[in-house]
Design goal:
Elements lengths: L15 E6 L6 E7 L5 E2 L7 E2 L3 E4 L3 H9 L8 H6 L10
Antiparallel strand pairs: 1-2, 1-5, 3-4
The structure holds zinc ion (ZN) (2 copies).
The site of one zinc ion has 7 residues, from loops.
Length: 93
């Protein structure tokens, strides 16, 4: 199923920084591996994908490099699942 447009504030093609809030348990988290129209799952609920309520573009390459090496929950990331590989260019766990 192709992702629907307009699910996220950011609609570009690059990876960006997303801020998420679970509507079920109100857990908040942030991810530097956020994409347009792609959600992530809440670690507590493991239910439906949660879409970021706020997204900002990653502007600093340094920051990008750090984030690439950071632990990223691939099983909870819609983009990773769609790609079949880590969306941040890292290695598959
Ligand atoms: Zn939750
Ligand atoms: Zn991902």
């Amino acid at each position: 199923m192709p992702p629907k447009a307009g699910l996220t504030p950011y609609q570009g093609k690059s990876r960006c920084f997303g801020e998420f809030k679970c509507p079920v348990c109100n857990r908040k988290w942030q991810s530097a591996n956020s994409w347009a129209n792609m959600g992530q799952k809440c670690e507590n609920c493991k239910g439906d994908f949660v879409y970021p309520y706020k997204q900002t573009q990653l502007l600093k390459p340094d920051e990008d490099h750090i984030n690439r090496n950071k632990d990223h929950p691939q099983d909870k990331c819609q983009k990773c699942r769609q790609l079949g590989r880590p969306c941040n260019g890292g290695s598959w766990r």
